[in-house]
Amino acid sequence: MYNDKDSVRDTLLINDVREATFDPVLGESVLLALKVVLSSNRMAATGVTVTFSIERGEKVSVITDDQGWASYTYTADTPGNVAVIAKLTGCDEPIHTFPLKVLAAGFWDGAMFQFGASEPAVWGTEAAFPRTSGGHTVWFKTDSAPLLGRQFCLGLTGYSSATELGLTVVPPLGEYRALPDNGELKWDFSYTGSRGGAYGLKLASPLILKHSPMNVMSLAPEGSRIEGAE
User: Fold this and answer.
1) What pairing do the DSSP bridges indicate for beta strands 12-18 and 49-54?
2) Which CATH superfamily is domain 107-219 in?
Protein backbone atom coordinates (compact mmCIF):
# COMPACT_ATOMS: atom_id res chain seq x y z
CA MET A 1 0.00 0.00 0.00
CA TYR A 2 1.26 3.45 -0.91
CA ASN A 3 1.91 5.85 1.98
CA ASP A 4 0.28 9.25 1.34
CA LYS A 5 3.06 10.91 3.36
CA ASP A 6 5.50 10.12 0.60
CA SER A 7 6.15 12.61 -2.18
CA VAL A 8 2.96 12.20 -4.21
CA ARG A 9 4.03 14.37 -7.07
CA ASP A 10 7.30 12.56 -7.61
CA THR A 11 6.13 8.98 -7.23
CA LEU A 12 2.60 8.71 -8.63
CA LEU A 13 1.40 8.80 -12.20
CA ILE A 14 -1.94 8.48 -13.92
CA ASN A 15 -1.51 5.48 -16.19
CA ASP A 16 -5.00 5.23 -17.67
CA VAL A 17 -8.29 7.13 -17.69
CA ARG A 18 -11.83 6.01 -18.47
CA GLU A 19 -13.87 8.92 -19.72
CA ALA A 20 -17.65 8.97 -19.93
CA THR A 21 -18.79 6.85 -22.87
CA PHE A 22 -21.91 8.95 -23.53
CA ASP A 23 -23.47 12.31 -22.74
CA PRO A 24 -25.98 11.73 -19.94
CA VAL A 25 -29.51 13.07 -19.83
CA LEU A 26 -30.67 14.49 -16.50
CA GLY A 27 -31.01 11.59 -14.08
CA GLU A 28 -28.66 9.26 -15.96
CA SER A 29 -25.35 8.17 -14.45
CA VAL A 30 -21.91 7.79 -16.01
CA LEU A 31 -18.85 5.98 -14.66
CA LEU A 32 -15.55 7.88 -14.49
CA ALA A 33 -12.29 6.23 -13.46
CA LEU A 34 -8.52 6.61 -13.44
CA LYS A 35 -5.61 4.32 -12.68
CA VAL A 36 -2.74 5.39 -10.44
CA VAL A 37 0.70 3.75 -10.70
CA LEU A 38 4.13 4.25 -9.15
CA SER A 39 6.44 6.19 -11.43
CA SER A 40 9.43 4.04 -10.54
CA ASN A 41 8.09 0.69 -11.75
CA ARG A 42 4.59 1.36 -13.12
CA MET A 43 3.08 -0.94 -10.50
CA ALA A 44 -0.46 -0.25 -9.34
CA ALA A 45 -0.61 2.22 -6.45
CA THR A 46 -3.15 0.79 -4.04
CA GLY A 47 -4.68 2.62 -1.09
CA VAL A 48 -4.21 6.09 -2.61
CA THR A 49 -6.94 8.63 -1.91
CA VAL A 50 -8.40 10.24 -5.03
CA THR A 51 -10.89 13.07 -4.55
CA PHE A 52 -13.47 13.71 -7.27
CA SER A 53 -15.05 17.14 -7.10
CA ILE A 54 -17.67 18.96 -9.13
CA GLU A 55 -17.52 22.67 -9.87
CA ARG A 56 -20.40 23.48 -7.53
CA GLY A 57 -18.44 22.04 -4.58
CA GLU A 58 -19.49 18.41 -4.11
CA LYS A 59 -16.53 16.17 -3.24
CA VAL A 60 -16.21 12.40 -3.00
CA SER A 61 -13.03 10.61 -1.87
CA VAL A 62 -12.23 7.17 -3.25
CA ILE A 63 -9.40 4.76 -2.37
CA THR A 64 -7.61 3.06 -5.26
CA ASP A 65 -8.17 -0.69 -5.40
CA ASP A 66 -5.56 -3.44 -5.79
CA GLN A 67 -5.31 -2.63 -9.50
CA GLY A 68 -4.75 1.07 -8.84
CA TRP A 69 -8.21 2.13 -10.04
CA ALA A 70 -10.40 4.77 -8.44
CA SER A 71 -13.94 5.04 -9.82
CA TYR A 72 -16.69 7.61 -9.39
CA THR A 73 -20.28 7.47 -10.61
CA TYR A 74 -21.64 10.87 -11.56
CA THR A 75 -25.41 11.29 -11.71
CA ALA A 76 -26.41 14.17 -13.96
CA ASP A 77 -28.51 16.78 -12.15
CA THR A 78 -27.61 20.00 -13.97
CA PRO A 79 -27.89 20.51 -17.75
CA GLY A 80 -24.98 21.97 -19.68
CA ASN A 81 -21.22 21.56 -19.49
CA VAL A 82 -19.97 19.97 -16.26
CA ALA A 83 -16.37 19.31 -15.19
CA VAL A 84 -15.50 16.59 -12.68
CA ILE A 85 -12.01 17.23 -11.31
CA ALA A 86 -9.84 14.49 -9.81
CA LYS A 87 -6.98 15.17 -7.37
CA LEU A 88 -4.59 12.99 -5.40
CA THR A 89 -4.06 13.54 -1.70
CA GLY A 90 -1.12 15.90 -1.28
CA CYS A 91 -1.47 17.49 -4.72
CA ASP A 92 -2.94 20.96 -5.08
CA GLU A 93 -3.25 20.80 -8.85
CA PRO A 94 -5.91 18.72 -10.62
CA ILE A 95 -4.47 15.52 -12.02
CA HIS A 96 -7.33 15.06 -14.48
CA THR A 97 -10.51 16.80 -15.53
CA PHE A 98 -13.44 14.82 -16.91
CA PRO A 99 -15.49 17.05 -19.24
CA LEU A 100 -19.18 16.17 -19.44
CA LYS A 101 -22.07 17.50 -21.49
CA VAL A 102 -25.38 16.95 -19.69
CA LEU A 103 -28.56 16.99 -21.77
CA ALA A 104 -31.90 18.26 -20.52
CA ALA A 105 -34.96 16.03 -20.79
CA GLY A 106 -36.72 16.61 -24.08
CA PHE A 107 -33.56 17.66 -25.91
CA TRP A 108 -34.79 15.90 -29.07
CA ASP A 109 -37.55 18.53 -29.27
CA GLY A 110 -34.96 20.70 -30.99
CA ALA A 111 -34.77 18.30 -33.96
CA MET A 112 -36.92 19.38 -36.91
CA PHE A 113 -38.15 17.06 -39.69
CA GLN A 114 -38.80 18.39 -43.18
CA PHE A 115 -40.32 16.27 -45.96
CA GLY A 116 -39.56 17.73 -49.38
CA ALA A 117 -40.77 21.32 -49.55
CA SER A 118 -43.18 21.00 -46.63
CA GLU A 119 -42.85 23.13 -43.52
CA PRO A 120 -40.48 21.74 -40.86
CA ALA A 121 -42.09 20.13 -37.81
CA VAL A 122 -40.66 18.70 -34.60
CA TRP A 123 -39.24 15.26 -35.39
CA GLY A 124 -41.82 12.57 -34.72
CA THR A 125 -44.90 14.80 -34.56
CA GLU A 126 -46.17 14.74 -38.15
CA ALA A 127 -46.38 11.80 -40.55
CA ALA A 128 -45.20 12.10 -44.16
CA PHE A 129 -46.85 10.48 -47.19
CA PRO A 130 -44.35 9.66 -49.96
CA ARG A 131 -45.30 7.87 -53.19
CA THR A 132 -43.46 5.01 -54.86
CA SER A 133 -42.83 6.90 -58.10
CA GLY A 134 -40.04 9.42 -58.22
CA GLY A 135 -38.22 10.35 -55.06
CA HIS A 136 -38.12 12.84 -52.26
CA THR A 137 -35.79 14.48 -49.76
CA VAL A 138 -35.85 14.31 -45.97
CA TRP A 139 -34.16 17.07 -43.99
CA PHE A 140 -32.97 17.17 -40.40
CA LYS A 141 -32.69 20.76 -39.23
CA THR A 142 -31.80 22.23 -35.86
CA ASP A 143 -30.55 25.35 -34.16
CA SER A 144 -30.68 23.70 -30.73
CA ALA A 145 -27.39 24.02 -28.83
CA PRO A 146 -27.46 20.47 -27.32
CA LEU A 147 -27.61 18.98 -30.84
CA LEU A 148 -25.09 21.22 -32.60
CA GLY A 149 -21.54 20.00 -33.13
CA ARG A 150 -22.50 16.33 -33.18
CA GLN A 151 -22.62 13.48 -35.68
CA PHE A 152 -25.92 11.93 -36.75
CA CYS A 153 -27.18 9.03 -38.80
CA LEU A 154 -30.64 8.16 -40.06
CA GLY A 155 -32.19 4.78 -39.32
CA LEU A 156 -35.30 2.97 -40.55
CA THR A 157 -37.63 1.09 -38.25
CA GLY A 158 -41.16 -0.30 -38.41
CA TYR A 159 -43.16 -2.85 -40.34
CA SER A 160 -41.36 -2.79 -43.70
CA SER A 161 -37.66 -3.08 -44.46
CA ALA A 162 -35.81 -0.95 -47.00
CA THR A 163 -35.43 -4.03 -49.22
CA GLU A 164 -39.14 -4.81 -49.12
CA LEU A 165 -39.93 -1.22 -50.05
CA GLY A 166 -37.35 -1.08 -52.84
CA LEU A 167 -35.92 1.90 -51.00
CA THR A 168 -32.53 3.49 -51.64
CA VAL A 169 -31.28 6.32 -49.44
CA VAL A 170 -28.32 8.58 -50.20
CA PRO A 171 -26.23 8.96 -48.05
CA PRO A 172 -26.94 5.44 -46.80
CA LEU A 173 -28.96 4.69 -43.69
CA GLY A 174 -26.71 4.18 -40.67
CA GLU A 175 -23.89 6.37 -41.99
CA TYR A 176 -22.80 8.99 -39.46
CA ARG A 177 -22.14 12.52 -40.67
CA ALA A 178 -21.06 15.66 -38.87
CA LEU A 179 -23.77 18.28 -38.59
CA PRO A 180 -22.60 21.31 -40.64
CA ASP A 181 -22.52 24.85 -39.27
CA ASN A 182 -25.91 25.58 -40.84
CA GLY A 183 -27.50 22.83 -38.72
CA GLU A 184 -28.92 20.89 -41.68
CA LEU A 185 -28.51 17.36 -43.04
CA LYS A 186 -30.46 15.85 -45.93
CA TRP A 187 -31.12 12.40 -47.36
CA ASP A 188 -32.43 11.63 -50.86
CA PHE A 189 -34.98 8.79 -51.10
CA SER A 190 -35.89 6.78 -54.20
CA TYR A 191 -38.08 3.70 -54.68
CA THR A 192 -37.89 0.88 -57.22
CA GLY A 193 -40.83 -1.08 -55.84
CA SER A 194 -44.51 -0.53 -56.57
CA ARG A 195 -46.05 -1.62 -53.29
CA GLY A 196 -46.74 0.60 -50.34
CA GLY A 197 -45.73 0.16 -46.75
CA ALA A 198 -45.28 1.88 -43.43
CA TYR A 199 -41.97 2.65 -41.81
CA GLY A 200 -40.42 5.12 -39.43
CA LEU A 201 -37.29 7.26 -39.42
CA LYS A 202 -35.14 7.85 -36.35
CA LEU A 203 -32.00 9.88 -35.72
CA ALA A 204 -29.07 8.54 -33.73
CA SER A 205 -25.90 10.18 -32.43
CA PRO A 206 -22.84 8.29 -31.08
CA LEU A 207 -22.72 9.99 -27.66
CA ILE A 208 -26.49 9.95 -27.03
CA LEU A 209 -28.02 6.72 -25.74
CA LYS A 210 -31.61 7.49 -26.68
CA HIS A 211 -32.65 7.74 -30.33
CA SER A 212 -34.97 10.45 -31.57
CA PRO A 213 -38.72 9.81 -31.67
CA MET A 214 -39.90 7.91 -34.75
CA ASN A 215 -41.22 9.97 -37.63
CA VAL A 216 -43.88 7.91 -39.41
CA MET A 217 -43.65 7.50 -43.19
CA SER A 218 -46.68 6.06 -45.03
CA LEU A 219 -45.61 4.96 -48.50
CA ALA A 220 -48.30 4.35 -51.13
CA PRO A 221 -48.36 3.65 -54.88
CA GLU A 222 -48.68 6.68 -57.12
CA GLY A 223 -52.28 7.84 -57.40
CA SER A 224 -53.37 6.43 -54.06
CA ARG A 225 -55.23 8.68 -51.69
CA ILE A 226 -54.25 8.39 -48.05
CA GLU A 227 -56.50 9.75 -45.33
CA GLY A 228 -54.69 12.57 -43.59
CA ALA A 229 -52.36 13.42 -46.47
CA GLU A 230 -52.62 16.87 -47.99
Assistant:
1) unpaired
2) Immunoglobulins (2.60.40.10)
